Amino acid sequence: MKTDKATQGFTLMELVIALAIVTILSGGVLVAVGGRSGERRNLHNASVQLQADIRYAQRRAIVEGQRYGIEFNFEQNYYRVVRNNPREVLRTVELPNGITFRLAANHNAATHQLSYLPRGTVSGHRNIEIESESYKQVLRMSMGGGRASLDEILPKNDN
After folding, report:
1. Stated pTM of the model
2. What's the CATH number for 12-155?
3. Over the chain, what is the mean pLDDT?
4. Where are the beta strands (DSSP E) in 8-127?
5. Cis peptide before 155 (omega within 30 of 0)
6. Is residue 75 exposed (0-12), middle (13-18) or buried (19+ Cβ within 10 Å)?
């Protein structure tokens, strides 16, 4: 009895080739999705670290009764935690590759400083945008108490 190819099913070779194609395509999708979540995670980590350093400077100012602050260098993509008088750099933090920051609301300054007074209030307060290629997050400084809070991470194309 002779059967035609349409009723025989797939050969082992056809199944192996189809499985290989599906594996390659799904691997590409996982890499693309994983890259985006890694980018978002790097942005989140950099934002939380900056927020923690701002809170640290505020606490030190209150506890020690001296001015402490954060000096931002937006062009070279780093910031420093400093004691203001006498001036001492406590820590320098470079942002990870692909993460940048700048003053929000179209301020194009190359540098900026937040300075906490001994009572914990801040001078030089401005909101800071922290960005990756696809996402952004805003660190907002409250006028009165100098509190630093983070907005949620949003895709850059949303406003």
Report:
1. 0.73
2. 3.55.40.10
3. 84
4. 68-73, 78-84, 87-94, 100-103, 111-116, 122-123
5. no
6. exposed
